[in-house]
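Hi Q.,

Before the meeting this afternoon, I wanted you to have the guanosine-5'-monophosphate prediction in hand. No need to reply - just skim if you have a minute. The sequence and ligand are here:
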Amino acid sequence: MSAEETVFSKIIKKEIPADIVFENERVLAFRDINPQAPVHILIIPKKPLRDLSEATAEDSALLGELLLTASKLAQEEKLDDGYRVVINTGTEGGQTVFHLHVHLLGGRRMGWPPG
Ligand code: 5GP
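Predicted structure with the ligand bound:
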């Protein structure tokens, strides 16, 4: 399945609903439908990148914007004691939706190592 055909591209096109917390021309952030922590937000590029490994140097600013958006939303969500940012990549990385996304998780103590 190409990135263009995922559930996230449908959320970008507003074909299916999502609880959107931030949007600009390049980036969209919305709450995960199956949250793994009290705060669980997905930050995605509107550009249809399949995963992190598909990104190139051309996407440097976009990748930076995804992380800075995570930081900004963590502040807005008052995750002052910390949070976790995760990019699952590929099958072994646990990726299930093949449109690049950054997970912002917070509001509870995280374990390590991850499962
Ligand atoms: P991955 O496992 O690929 O890193 O993360 C995909 C995430 O997308 C999962 O946490 C899953 O709960 C979330 N997700 C899947 N489908 C939808 C949906 O239709 N809406 C929202 N808001 N989240 C979704």
